[in-house]
Amino acid sequence: MYRDFNNSLEEISLQDELIDFINGKDFGKEKKRVFILRQLRRDNNGDLIPCVCKDELANEGLQDCHYCEGIGYYWDEKIITGFLYDPTKRKINTVLEINKEAGRKDRYEIRFMTDFNVYIHQYDRLFEPDLTVDGFVKIPIKYVNKYIILENIYKRMDYGRLEYNYSVLSRYE
Ligand SMILES: [Zn+2]
C-alpha cells in the first residue's frame, strides 16, 4: 500500500519547512509529549517477523490474536517522547479547527519528530495516549489517535548539530 512512498518523498519538499519549524520561535515551547511506540520485530535481514496467526494470502493477522493483536507481526512497545505536527493545520487551518482529514484518512500525512536515539522504522505504529493535565498517561490507557509510520528519516543538520528522527505518519482507525 505504501510501496511508492519512497518515490514521492522528495516531492514533499519538507526541508525548508522543517528548518523553519526547528529554528523558529515555536521550537522553544514545550511541544514534546508522551507516545507509545509499537516497534515491529525484525530479523537480522531487517525483515518483519510474521506472527503465527498471519494469513499469507490475506496478508493480515487475526484480530483477536493474543500475540500481535491483529497486526500480523510480532512487536514490542515502549514509551517515547516526541512531537507531532500537522502541516495541513499549520498552514491552512490555523484558525478554523475543521477536521480536514475526514473522508481521506488514507492520504492524510502527519509529521512526527523525535530525538536521534529513538529507533523508529517503517510500518511501526505510534499511539497517542490520553494524558492527565500533568502530562502523565491516564490509566487505563486509552488511545486518542493511532498512526502508522510511512517513512522515517534520520536528520543531521550542518549547523547547530541538531540530530533527530523525522517521520511521516498516517492516521488510521
Ligand atoms: Zn498474531
Measured as a percent range, the helix fraction is: 10-25%
Quick one: how many beta strands? 6
Q: How many individual helices?
A: 3
Mean pLDDT: 76
Unreliable residue stretches: 1-13, 90-107
Count of discrete structural domains: 1
Q: How would a crystallographer describe the biggest sheet?
A: 6 strands, antiparallel, barrel
Strand order of the largest sheet: 1-2-3-6-5-4
Output the helix-strand order: HHEEHEEEE
Rg: 17 Å
Ligand types: zinc ion
Task: Quote the distance from N terminus to C terminus.
Answer: 16 Å
The general outline is globular
Strand content: 25-35%
Structural class: mainly beta
Key words describing this protein structure:
single chain; 173 residues; mainly beta; six-stranded antiparallel barrel; 3 helices; 6 strands; 11% helix; globular; disordered N terminus; binds zinc ion
Question: Can you give me a brief rundown of this structure?
Answer:
This protein is mainly beta.
Structure description:
It is a single chain. The protein is mainly beta. The chain is 11% helix and 32% strand. The protein has helices at 5-9, 15-23, 87-91, and strands spanning 33-40, 75-85, 109-115, 125-129, 143-156, 163-172. It has a six-stranded antiparallel beta barrel. A hairpin with a 6-residue loop joins strand 5 (143-156) and strand 6 (163-172). Zinc ion binds next to loops.
List the helices and strands and how they pair.
Blueprint: H1 5-9, H2 15-23, E1 33-40, E2 75-85, H3 87-91, E3 109-115, E4 125-129, E5 143-156, E6 163-172
Antiparallel strand pairs: 1-2, 1-4, 2-3, 3-6, 4-5, 5-6
The chain binds zinc ion (ZN).
